[in-house]
Amino acid sequence: MNNLEIKNLHVLVGDKEIIRGLDLTIKTGEVHAIMGPNGSGKSTLANALAGHPKYEITAGKIIVDGKNLTGLGPDKIARAGVFLSMQHPPEIDGVTVNNFLRTASETLAGEKHNPIKFYNSLLKKMVELKIDKNFSKRYLNVGFSGGEKKAMEIIQLLTLRPSYAILDEIDSGLDVDALKMVARGINRFCGPKTAVLLITHYNRILKLIRPDYVHIMKAGQIVKSGGPELAIEVEKRGYK
Amino acid sequence: MFECLNVYMDELYKEFILELNRNPLHKKELVDFDIEKKAANKSCGDDVRVRIKFDTKGNIANIGYQGQLCAISQAAVSLLLDDVLKKNISEVCAYDEKKMIEIFTADVIYTRKKCLLIGLNALLAAIRVNKLL
Q1: According to a count of CB atoms within 10 Å of the terminal CB, is the N or C end of chain A lower?
Q2: Tens-place pLDDT, residues A42-85
Q3: What are chain B's domains?
């Protein structure tokens, strides 16, 4: 039972209901894309799945590999194998990229790593993604460009190796080269034991990462589901 | 502590040493072991005791250390033990200062050589004293 099930999910932000009865099942080995107009609840869905305290789940369930994660904190959800790449990752001064990644990885693994071996494996990943190795010594997201922040999210994804990756607008604001780097990283992550939920506004990333399913979200619900052709249709005609 | 390190040492390696000092690897009391050996740096008061458990083929199946050590010693012993784990004794007995620098990924100044080598000394002495090779 390797899947992420969202059953009749209702999410409240403040006193406003943003997600209104959403159902979705994502099996490992699959890539799902969610598209939808601004304000349709895509980011709310991503944040609620990751256990953000601001997003209150009022009804429904989130089940990962048969385990009910509804209402748990982000640390427990992360340990269950769910990863969120944030639309706007925070800057943390004084914490190096290397230190942050090692600490996160150790916390998920429940054991200490050899810091030098960890660093070397991190450098290897960065070389593969064609990212400058001095990146690892910089403070987390501090002064990073839009592209660098997204590169950081991809390095996190490949280092922490979750089962389910929720990528919230990882392609927004990227130039062609940065988009290719992000797509390369995501394609590396994809495999029979992993699943991706890609939230995006643009079909261009879906040309590089071929989704198995495309869902259209409107007013807190999935209103239409289909294959990659649905994204092309959206690109041509909009959401009307 | 830092002023004693190689001036060319990377910021990251300082972080590694501090990390390994706070959270050393293989610092545990091995109850089931085949050989043990202590080593000490008398001038600074550091001491270490290494215990090793072998499998039937002479590979290091488990290893652990205890001791009072400075940050560099602690990091060096941690990395050494992590390196030799699962390796064969015949390979490990050839380890020398050059190999230790490679494992530590940096050299240290002369006055801290003893810190770098305390773990290796205990390990090699354990093999020698027990006439394992």
Answers
A1: C
A2: 999 999 999 999 999 999 999 999 999 999 999 999 999 999 99
A3: 2-129 (3.90.1010.10)
Among candidates B12, B15, B79 on the partner chain, residue whose Cβ is nearest the Cβ of A114: B79
As a whole number of angstroms, the distance between CA A70 and CA A199 comes to 21
Cβ-defined contact of B15 to A116 (cutoff 8 Å):
no
Give B105's contacts in chain A (Cβ within 8 Å).
Answer: 116
**DSSP letters of A6-41?**
EEEEEEEETTEEEEEEEEEEEETT-EEEEE--TTSS
Encode burial over B45-83: b for 16+ CB neighbours within 10 A, e otherwise: ebbbbbbbebeeeebbbbbbbbbebbbbbbbbbbbbbbb
The domain spanning residue A101 has which CATH number? 3.40.50.300
- Cβ-Cβ contacts under 8 Å, B19 against chain A: 99, 102, 115
Residue-wise pLDDT for A133-150, tens only, equals: 888 889 999 999 988 999
SS3 A217: strand
Average pLDDT of the segment spanning A97-124: 92
pLDDT at B7: 41
User: Edge to edge, what strands does the sheet with B35-41 contain?
Assistant: B35-41, B46-54, B60-68
Cβ distance of A99 and B15 shorter than 8 Å? yes
Domain that holds residue A123: 3-237
Tally the domains of chain A: 1
B65-122 pLDDT, tens per residue? 999 999 999 999 999 999 999 999 999 999 999 999 999 988 888 889 999 999 999 9
CB contact under 8 A, A137 and B105: no
CB contact B80 to A (< 8 Å): no
Query: What confidence tier does B9 reach under pLDDT thresholds 50, 70, 90?
Result: low
For B20, the closest of A98, A115, A137 (CB atoms) is A115
